[in-house]
From TrEMBL:
Keywords: Repeat. Belongs to the copine family. GO terms for biological process: cellular response to calcium ion. The keyword Nucleotidyltransferase does not apply. It comes from Circaetus pectoralis (black-chested snake-eagle). This is CPNE7 protein.
Amino acid sequence: RATATMGETPEPSPQAPLAVLSKVELRVSCKHLLDRDTLNKSDPCVLLLMQSQGQWMEVDRSEIIKSNLNPVFAKIFTVDYYFEEVQKLRFEVYDSHGHAGVGTHDDDFLGGMECTVGQIVAQKRVTKPLFLKYGKFAGKSTITVISEEISGNNGYVELAFRAKKLDDKDLFSKSDPFLEIYRIDDDRSEQLVYRTEVRPRAGSVPWPARGCSAPLSPPQPPQVVKNNLSPIWEPFKVSLNSLCSCEEKRKLRCVVWDYDSRGKHDFIGEFFTTFEEMQKAMGENKVQWDCMNPKYKIKKRNYKNSGVVVLLDLKIHRVYSFLDYIMGGCQIHFTVAIDFTASNGDPRNSCSLHYINPYQPNEYLKALVAVGEICQDYDSDKKFSALGFGARIPPKYEVSHDFAINFNPDNDECEGIQGVVESYQSCLPKIQLYGPTNVAPIISKVARVAANEERTKEASQYFILLILTDGVVTDMADTREAIVRASYLPMSIIIVGVGNADFTDMQILDGDDGILRSPKGEPVLRDIVQFVPFREFKNASPTALAKCVLAEVPKQVVEYYSYKAFPPRCPQPDTPDSNLSSPQ
């Protein structure tokens, strides 16, 4: 996997869609640890391990806190976060007898806890009991993990500057001033963030392109600020990542020059500031700085400044990330829709795509579990809607294209992914596989629920519909219409083609090769469909399918809420002991 620094986009691999990478900080504390020392209390240290290819690998470890059974560790663990993966973590607490040997037989094991990165970010704060070997409780010991996203590019800022009474550097006219802003990096090097523009006098060489940080709005015409010692520069926009690396206290150097068409610009003065100081200009307030020429300050006894630069206005435009919404309490509601048309074959026949092999799950179950295991970490009640289509169902054995596979028309939800699996297996003997393959009714059914959620005008629930089908849909026109309607709602659709049918016509729904349109020509508001044939992942690990079909979901969530201008909800108050669970 290609990695990227904060604010950069990872390079897409040819095998998979673009993954959304975030970094998450984890803070750890414990309570009521076992006391293994005779004379003193335990000296705890935490090891963080992550599962990779079935093996637990140490990621990092905390400091050792002397003689403390309720430690709050200063160490901050940083992990990469991928929505489309189940990232298993294990926290192990030891009573240390020397940092070099933490985790060895010389240390006393105080307990461990396993969870996923997804569980932690979805709940923001996870408190669980610690367990010793063989699933035995470590007394009343608990461990708490709190998560926070490291935001790589959380918005942009709009700035409006002017200057007053700048020094005149021209002999026969007034100065033609422009302003440069530099970010001072950790290695003390300077990175040009933005340069205002001056329209050159006739016959001179054109001014180069504006700044090294492209504005987020369409480029404005060059500013005309010449022969003016009190210029007002056009407002401009830069990303917070570019301006200050999203660090409010990072030092900035601002330089004012008198433009020269030959490139030999005359230095007028400079000043230093921070984004934290700039923010005082929000609202009706203004911030100003003396524009200083260090040489004049040394040479001239009564030197005050070479003019004043004023920040007239500052507007922050926040751009929220997927984790902002998840950590704000947005729930992912997962619905699965299963194709029960006759083309699947008689479930009693081993050649059927619905055949229940006691030793190996069929393709429907493999796809269901792979995707469902990811989504379940983001749904607090762990209840999932499970629907079927294309079958004759009891009691009248009429064809239905949106029935609950638990046969409860008032509540189609199942308890966890295992509940969906059990309902699927138990419904097979009770139904008659039939047809046709109509999926528009189920898309519309989930869309109605999503529409009710939209009316709350809150980022509280987003819907993922997983459709598992063995053939090209019959109601293509109605399906296109339903998808266009759904693209305006908090909803994404994943379609997995099961079996060896020719799914070429299904690619049109994906929208990757062009914009999907309704039969009347109306385009989708946003691309919400991801289609993949399961056979491409038949010999891959179960997680490969989930990575492929879920990689675009974070982007789709952000696109929807950004379009609606719904900010993340405020997280609910932490309830430290609400997440206690039994041994894993």
